[in-house]
Design a protein that fits this description.
Layout: H1 3-53, H2 61-81, H3 85-103, H4 107-117, H5 121-130, H6 132-139
Length: 141
């Protein structure tokens, strides 16, 4: 092999090597682009699933408590209307102590109030009237 042939082969080898480097760079760009598209597609899927699974938040607790307080006040008013004047006066005298016990989360008081929640006003009035002596002993000021 003469010197010209050797130089031509070297030049061809360098050109071939340069072409391979260029193709390798192009493949790397394509792989990076494919990875970026995969990440973007995964993010779109994640957001779509999250949007479908989004549950409407419950109404604010304050709104629920306002409705509950209104219903409770209406029930208390209806119950008191069914009591005699004497029963109202006797129960009125123990309200401060009863309220303090309720605010202190005394278990027997909480259980008593909870038992009244599902009763109709006439049933609560009957319960109060029949246990007024016990209530006075328990909550005497």
């Amino acid at each position: 092999m003469n010197e010209n042939e050797t130089q031509t082969m070297a030049t061809s080898g360098e050109a071939l090597l340069e072409a391979l480097r260029a193709q390798t760079a192009q493949v790397k760009v394509l792989v990076d682009a494919y990875a970026d598209m995969g990440h973007a597609a995964a993010e779109v899927v994640r957001k779509t699933v999250a949007a479908r699974n989004r549950v409407a938040p419950p109404p604010p607790v304050s709104a629920q408590l306002h409705r509950f307080a209104t219903l409770l006040a209406d029930k208390a008013t209806a119950t008191v209307a069914l009591l005699t004047d004497e029963q109202r006066a006797r129960l009125g005298a123990i309200v401060p102590s009863f309220t303090s016990a309720a605010l202190a989360d005394e278990p027997d008081v909480i259980a008593m109030v909870a038992s009244w929640l599902d009763l109709a006003p006439d049933e609560i009035a009957r319960d109060l009237a029949s246990s007024i002596d016990d209530l006075e002993r328990r909550f005497a000021a």
